[in-house]
Structure formats: structure tokens, C-alpha cells
Amino acid sequence: MSQLDICQVAHGYRTGGLLRRGGWLQVLDGIDLTLSVGQSVGLLGSSGSGKSTLARLLLGLEKPRQGQVRFAGQDVSQLRGEPAREFQRAVQLVLQDAPSAFNPQRSIAWSIAEPLRHLSQMNQAAQHKRVLQLLEQMGLRAEHAERLPHQLSGGQLQRANIARALAISPQWVVLDEALSNLDRVLQLQLLQRLDALRRETGTGFVLISHDLSLVRYFCQRVVLMSEGRIVEDRPVDQALAFEHPVGQQLQRAMLPERPKQRLPAAQPATAQA
């Protein structure tokens, strides 16, 4: 198991088109973050705070303008050959838009097994067995394996999407607003399953969200971002004591817990005249 380090990362994008001179839009500025295997970390912040950009850097999908993302002490952007394949196996991503992650003309089983075909030495029989195991872990049935994506509900498709991310037993899974389209009951069911997996296998999770309730429910640590910076990093049991205004706003946006009330006693039925 290796450590994932974000070291003094700054990143941004050029503005302007082909025919006019643009500038530079700074998105991340001086990010330092260490992710340990076996821990669920909530990456919290309002829209535009840089959470999704940081996720792309964590996956090696973009190279930071300054600083480094390091896997096992090595700069991710410099990995080649087997070290690069090891990194691809180690970190997986689940996005909010589950349908876009599937080939509409291929079965669910085919899509879930795709990482196994490219990043493992499993034969077809072993791949199929692994797919069925993953479906069961995510609360789906074996019959879902041969269905096409449009034959599953949104919640079922997102569970299959998470199953695919887990196929090669990664060290970390980045959930980038992956639960935001699901109802609250299904969100909690999925988080319970993922937490059981974390305890069993040591898989770490990065839950990117603006929903403090989910972060408090699932994570052991919460990292608060604002305007491209990490402004607070604390144990999740202190998440209701944010000092930064953004954290306080997210706290106020939480749904209040309903007080427990006893239901009124049933009234005896009256006889009909």
C-alpha cells in the first residue's frame, strides 16, 4: 500500500480563444494534501472551489502547472510502463453522470470487466466471477449483469459504475459528486456498503461533495476548500465547528434533524350505527 501526496500544487487554465489573446484563470493555489490508504476523506466546498480539478490531478488526468502529485514518492506525471499501470490500478474515479460511463451497446458485465481486461491477468471465467461478486457487493443481482445500461434505473446504474471502479481492488476510489443524483436512502445504503468494504480491504475513499451531511456520515476526515485553497483540515467529528465562512454556510445548508416524536395512540374504532 502506497501513499498519495499532493505537494504545493497550483493549477489553472488559459482563457480566451484562438483569435484573441487570453489570460490565466487560477483554479488551485498551493494545495498540500496527503491521502492514506484505509481512510475516507471528505473533500468539501461550494461550487467553483476547485474540488473536481483536484480530482483530475489526483487521477493523473492533468499535470499541475506547479508542484507534484506523488504516488509512492514518485511524480505521477513521470510514470511510465509498469509503474504507470500500478498507479492506474491504485486510483479509480466515479463521476456523477453514470450513463456516460457505459457503452450503451454493451452489457453491464462487459463494462464492469473492462478494467480487468486491461489491468489484470484474469481469464474470462475469473473476470465473470469477479463481476458477479461486485454486483452482489453493490446490492445488484446476477441477472443485471447481462442487461444493457438503459435497462437499469439511475440508482442501479450508479451502483454498477461504482462496481467497475472497485473491479481491480484499487487503493483509493475518488467519488466526485457520485451520489448527488441519488435519493437519500440509496445514498446511505451505498455509503454503508463502501464503508464495510473499507474496513474489510483497506480501500481509501475521497468523497467530493458539497453535502456536509454525507461527509459526516461516511468520512473520518474532512478537508474544506475555498477559492482553490485548503482552508481547513480536521477530523470529521469537528466538522460542525468550522471557522471559515464557507464551512459555516455548508453547515447551515444541512437538513435539520427532525425531533423524535411519539405517534399518537390509535383510537378505538367506533361501531357503525
Automatic annotation (TrEMBL):
E.C. numbers: 7.2.2.11
Pfam families registered for this protein in UniProt: ABC_tran (PF00005)
Keywords: ATP-binding, Cell inner membrane, Cell membrane, Ion transport, Membrane, Nickel, Nickel transport, Nucleotide-binding, Translocase, Transport
Membrane topology value: Peripheral membrane protein
Superkingdom, taxonomy of origin: Bacteria
GO CC annotation, single: plasma membrane
GO molecular function: ABC-type nickel transporter activity; ATP binding; ATP hydrolysis activity; nickel cation binding
Domain ABC transporter: 13-252
Chief location of this protein within or outside the cell: membrane
Chemical reaction(s) catalysed: Ni(2+)(out) + ATP + H2O = Ni(2+)(in) + ADP + phosphate + H(+)
Compartments where located: Cell inner membrane
First-level EC class: translocase
Subunit comment: The complex is composed of two ATP-binding proteins (NikD and NikE), two transmembrane proteins (NikB and NikC) and a solute-binding protein (NikA).
PANTHER family listed in its UniProt record: D,D-DIPEPTIDE TRANSPORT ATP-BINDING PROTEIN DDPF-RELATED (PTHR43776:SF7), TRANSPORT ATP-BINDING PROTEIN (PTHR43776)
UniProt similarity note: Belongs to the ABC transporter superfamily. Nickel importer (TC 3.A.1.5.3) family.
Functional description taken from the UniProt entry: Part of the ABC transporter complex NikABCDE involved in nickel import. Responsible for energy coupling to the transport system.
Stated name of the protein: Nickel import ATP-binding protein NikE
Annotated organism of origin: Pseudomonas urmiensis
Primary gene name: nikE
